[in-house]
Amino acid sequence: MKKRVVTISRKHGSGGRTIGHMLEERLGIKCYDQQLIEMIAKESGFATDFIEENGEKVTNSLLFNIATSLTFAYNTFSQERMSLQDQLFMTQGRVIKELADKEPCIIVGSCADYFLAEREDVLNVFIHSDKEHRKKIAVEKYGYSPKEVDGILNRKDRERASHYRYYTERDWADASNYHVCLDSGMYGMEKCADIIADLYRID
Amino acid sequence: MKKRVVTISRKHGSGGRTIGHMLEERLGIKCYDQQLIEMIAKESGFATDFIEENGEKVTNSLLFNIATSLTFAYNTFSQERMSLQDQLFMTQGRVIKELADKEPCIIVGSCADYFLAEREDVLNVFIHSDKEHRKKIAVEKYGYSPKEVDGILNRKDRERASHYRYYTERDWADASNYHVCLDSGMYGMEKCADIIADLYRID
Questions:
Q1: Which of A43, A193, B46, B113 could form a disulfide with A22 if both were Cys (CB 3.0 to 4.6 A apart)?
Q2: How far is B126 from chain A (nearest CA, A)?
Q3: 3-state secondary structure of A32
Q4: ipTM entry
């Protein structure tokens, strides 16, 4: 079946977001990344900073738990006893499903592969590369300190894996969740985008 | 760097072995699969049936443990206190490393990606597909009964995963272990072979 939507899950610093934008040019369809966060912000009332910080991790911070308790109290009469984290996850799902209904597109992150699992016209992609390659990209692109970058990448990997596991009950980096997984460090981002674009175009 | 060796890890029934032989034709290099088992048999003295049965699983059978105990007793003076399973694994590694030194080739199974991890000229591939697709192939190709095929595939998956984890301390289906992972059920084995051959030829 011809594909309509590409979802890209990616290890931090592997260039998954950049590959998404390369695909946008090659396929002539929109890549939702920062704009997805803004749409979720608009839909949910959460700040974009909050979504960027909490959209792909399960948090246990004290402040977050206090805010969640207050929300519980506030929502008692409406029976909506969801945590803020759960509310954010539900909103992500709603926005992503609406996007996939509305237009062919590329969606980066936010467990999009999980939310769209019932559609057959979705190509699920996972991008990774070895730690040294990711450290180099992360320092150059995100401005992390060379001393701290290893710890930051380890933390991001753990956060994304546990967030994905918590909500989907699947392993985030398990190849079986995706139609194609590529090491962007071995062949470069352009080649990854070529392969994905080729698969997307198959009838 | 131009690749010399392709390793193919695969879920049972996903067509990884067939893709290996398609690559043999496309690339003009030999695919070691059944012949690898025969080479390991010759090197180790184990029967081919024993290698096929135990080469990709960690066994706990009583008979196997008795045989291992006898081997321990026999080897006490030579300080080689390895189980039969460990001896088989060590022989697999030696044969695979010799093959990679000897000629460009394709190696199916046997943790080849792990044994060749220090080489930079190896392309590591993982092939999988969804359970319904694998069940269909396994019934047609291996003659499993339709009633039993689901249980057989689950057992094979568990065996390969635990064998890989036991010896490599890594997750078998983790995309990060491989340069490319492909869902053969989505795009077919020919397309998978095309993508792998294309990556193999890149300088």
A1: A193
A2: 8
A3: strand
A4: 0.88
